[in-house]
From TrEMBL:
Listed name of the protein: LLM class F420-dependent oxidoreductase
Top-rank taxon: Bacteria
Domain Luciferase-like: 14-251
Organism classification: Bacteria, Bacillati, Actinomycetota, Actinomycetes, Sporichthyales
Length: 273
């Protein structure tokens, strides 16, 4: 399977912040991929708008929620976008969270069935990736798609994931706050992490990594927060992001938190790209 060239680093932005202007700036700065984060919905017109505004950068979904949109229409969206912008769209899909989806049940068989439908509709496996945290889904990602897109993980998880996925794509996301004020950075980090600390799939993954229940209580321990959301000056953060590559990642997508994500993306580009 020929993997898409996503570049060493990309930008991850929630759908509400993913404007054509930001995608064009990410391309000018030298990032390889712009991840349309959250749960972009069918008919994926936002993907098309980002591609229209750029020339080279890959646009990836991180991720289309399998419970929110059926595989058939998503496959049609893929083919429409691919025809207009060949070779520049990576379809990221995932199962979402049981706490956020009342229909959530039997996640693994649902993922297999959804991927079966995308296969049957002609979506190439090397143009898809799968949100994955645990060993079973990481293996599924490697077997059935280009590879895995883990979210909110550490370089230690990346090293473990590489052993499972073998030569498949491994593209973890990592949150950062470009600030040397540790108290300010942790406050910004906890504001985002509080949501994920209530989700069982993320908690289970962090416990597998070796964090304790105490680490995950009351907004997270400082050590946990600092690992999940890097902070400091751009060089310090860059060193932390490169640790994912040292652990086996092919690509790292960066989610900059705080009042001015664009400024952080520019500062990181100067030391990373």
């Amino acid at each position: 399977m020929q993997l898409m060239d996503l570049g060493s680093f990309g930008i991850w932005q929630p759908t509400v912040r993913s404007t054509p202007e930001l995608a064009a700036e990410a391309e000018r700065l030298g990032y390889g991929t712009f991840w349309l984060g959250g749960s972009p919905r069918e008919p994926l017109t936002q993907v098309e708008e980002l591609l229209d505004a750029t020339e080279r950068i890959v646009i990836a979904t991180g991720i289309v929620n399998m419970w929110a949109d059926d595989a058939g229409p998503i496959a049609e969206n893929y083919h429409r976008i691919e025809a207009k912008h060949p070779g520049r769209f990576l379809l990221g899909v995932g199962i979402g969270h049981p706490e956020a989806t009342k229909e959530y049940q039997a996640p693994y068989p649902t993922m297999v069935s959804y991927l079966d439908e995308l296969d049957a509709a002609g979506v190439p496996r090397d143009r898809m990736c799968l949100a994955a945290l645990g060993p079973k889904v990481l293996k599924l990602a490697a077997d059935r798609t280009a590879g895995a897109h883990p979210y909110l993980t550490s370089p230690a998880h990346t090293a473990q994931a590489r052993e499972i996925v073998g030569g498949a794509l491994l593209a973890p996301e990592h949150m950062v706050v470009v600030s040397t004020d540790a108290d300010e950075a942790r406050a910004i980090a906890r504001k985002t992490l509080n949501f994920y600390l209530g989700l069982i799939n993320y908690r289970n993954n962090w416990l597998r990594e070796g964090y304790s229940e105490a680490d995950l209580a009351d907004g997270g321990s400082d050590a946990f927060v600092d690992a999940m959301v890097l902070h400091g000056d751009a060089k310090t953060i860059a060193d932390g992001l490169r640790a994912h590559h040292d652990a086996g990642a092919d690509h790292v997508c960066i989610q900059v938190l705080g009042p001015d994500p664009s400024a952080g993306q520019r500062a990181l580009a100067e030391v990373l790209l």
